[in-house]
Amino acid sequence: VIVTSSAGVRRWDPLTRRTVWERMDGIAVDPIVLDDKTMAIPRVPGIEIVDVDTGQVKQTLPTGGQKFQGLMGRDRGNRWLGAPVFGGAVALYDLSTLSLVTIIPTKLVDNKPLISRDGQRLVVAAVVSDTKTRIYITDRSGAVRKELCGDCRISSYLGENILIVEMADRLPAEIKIVDWEGRVKRQITPTVT
């Protein structure tokens, strides 16, 4: 079991009820498990690729001089990793080569990005108010390709498509399934939200 807190990250074994390893250096983290052997942990020097069993750092991915903020996201094929950074950008990494590909300038990132399988498009969210979030598809240049909804609560993968839940200050919510071009594939209005 991987446990995170504002103090750091620890791997705990529920069978022995003991800590296997820990990195408690006062840096809040949000790791992503990459496979059964490794995980990515955003740190001050960069994204550390860590051995899940031992906690040893295998490699540190560069940050391009950026500081991380928010939650990391990745594509469904586990090739691309997107890490929001301060100043409104996403650091895009290629996990097949463990390298920083680009820093995508966008002022819209307030949550973990969703990334297309080819790494060319991202779904990003911009918080407008305490109760309102807008969700967009952007490309690698940071250009908005399509606004998916103006008052959303959820964006997630649904197979090769994107699922969004739009509230628009009304009930029931509207559920849309869209492709990476932003075309609506299906729209559902549940009778109960």
Please write out the topology:
Elements: E1 2-5, E2 8-13, E3 18-23, E4 32-33, E5 38-42, E6 47-51, E7 57-61, E8 73-74, E9 80-85, E10 89-94, E11 99-105, E12 114-115, E13 121-129, E14 132-139, E15 144-158, E16 161-166, E17 174-178, E18 184-188
Antiparallel strand pairs: 1-2, 2-3, 4-5, 5-6, 6-7, 8-9, 9-10, 10-11, 12-13, 13-14, 14-15, 15-16, 16-17, 17-18
Describe the structure in your own words.
Helix content is 0%, strand content 54%. The strands form four sheets. The chain has a seven-stranded antiparallel β-sheet, with no helix packed on it. It has a four-stranded antiparallel β-sheet with strand order 4-5-6-7, with no helix packed on it. The chain has a four-stranded antiparallel β-sheet with strand order 8-9-10-11, with no helix packed on it. It is built from no helices and 18 strands. The radius of gyration is 18 Å and the shape is globular. β14 (132-139) and β15 (144-158) form a beta hairpin. It is mostly beta strands.
Q: What spatial form do the alpha-carbon principal axes imply?
A: globular
Oligomer category: single chain
Helical content (DSSP H or I, runs of 4+): under 10%
Number of strands: 18
Low-confidence stretches: none
What do the pLDDT scores average to?
85
Structural class assignment: mainly beta
